[in-house]
Amino acid sequence: MAIYTCFDMVRDCRDNRPEGWTYLITNYAPILRRFLTQYYDGRAGLLDRMLPQLKNPQSTLWAAPGHAEERIFVAALRQELLRLVELDKASREPSIALDLETLTSALAPFTVIDRQYIWLESMGYSNQITAEMMNLDVTSSESARARAEEALRGVLDQWKRGLIAENGLNLGRLATASHGERCLPAKAFLDTLDGRITWQRKKDYEFHLMQCWFCIDHFCRIREADFAINKSTPLTEDEAAPLLRQLSIPIPKKEKKGLLARMFAR
User: Fold this and answer.
1) Under a CB-based contact definition with an 8 Å cutoff, are residues 66 and 23 in contact?
2) In 3-state terms, the chain is what percent helix, strand and coil (to 5)?
3) What are the Cα distances from residue 145, in Å, to 28, 62, 158, 163, 236?
4) What is residue 99's three-state secondary structure?
5) In a domain, 266, yes or no
6) Over 80: is that where the pLDDT of 2 sits?
7) Which whole-number Å values give the CA distances from 153 to 37, 57, 98, 107, in the listed order?
8) The pLDDT value given to residue 57
9) Which of 13, 14, 80, 265, CA to CA, is 20 to 30 A from 164?
10) 218 & 121 share domain
11) Is 81 found in the same domain as 56?
């Protein structure tokens, strides 16, 4: 039996085939809920409002021919979800604005690992979850973030604690807009996470990451996708049914089990 992949799902969703949408709802609605809880405190009704917009064939999520790697798809799904929610101006503007130039100046001596700790703070992740995502000790995250607070206080006329997290969505937009021709492909981050990387490639990647917030952001989104996939459980048929009905997707009929199957299932 052929394996149904993210590539197949993206193709089928783009062609508005029920099997694609059934697979997406079953496997990725829990991840969508996780993202909405992370960025919007699980605001009531957001998932119901966003799903029809994701189903729009003009959505940028379906512009690519397909995502062969699940983590790349989930990172793209997260970007499209946040974009759609923010069209409703769901987030308040920060009380004190922070731009990438200021952040770059303040964090000039910080390592690539430190920058990821700090960027994951801008994405709203606690020290504990950040340490779990990066498979490192929580005290390292705490130290990097405390030093970043002090570094920012030294370069800003106005300052308060929590500025990085408060400016998270704006910093994400700025980082996305800073994409350049030499930016690293998603595969570079997947290879790093999966341990498929030579020492020379690691050095080359880190040299680029020290100069590029787009790639720091991209790397952190791939880490987030990896974490979300591992922490999420697909919906049951009964759980998926209301969401499928909302999208006018035919609900797959349950297969009737034969006598022997029913007996061995007990």
Assistant:
1) no
2) 65, 0, 35
3) 31, 36, 18, 11, 40
4) coil
5) no
6) no
7) 30, 46, 12, 11
8) 76
9) 80
10) yes
11) yes
- Cα–Cα dist 140/159, whole Å: 23
Q: Say whether both 110 and 222 belong to one domain.
A: yes
Question: What's the one-letter identity of residue 197?
Answer: I
Whether residue 21 contacts residue 55, with contact meaning beta carbons closer than 8 Å, is answered with: yes
- 263 in a structural domain: no
* pTM across the whole model: 0.90
257 inside domain: no
Exposed, middle or buried: residue 222 (CB in 10 Å: 0-12, 13-18, 19+)? buried
41 token code pair:
């405190």
Q: Where are the alpha helices (DSSP H) in 55-162?
A: 70-86, 100-106, 112-122, 127-134, 138-155
Does 74 share its domain with 116?
Answer: no
Overall size of the chain counted in residues:
266
Judge whether 249 and 26 are in contact, CB under 8 Å. no
58-79 per-position pLDDT tens digit? 787 887 655 668 999 999 999 9
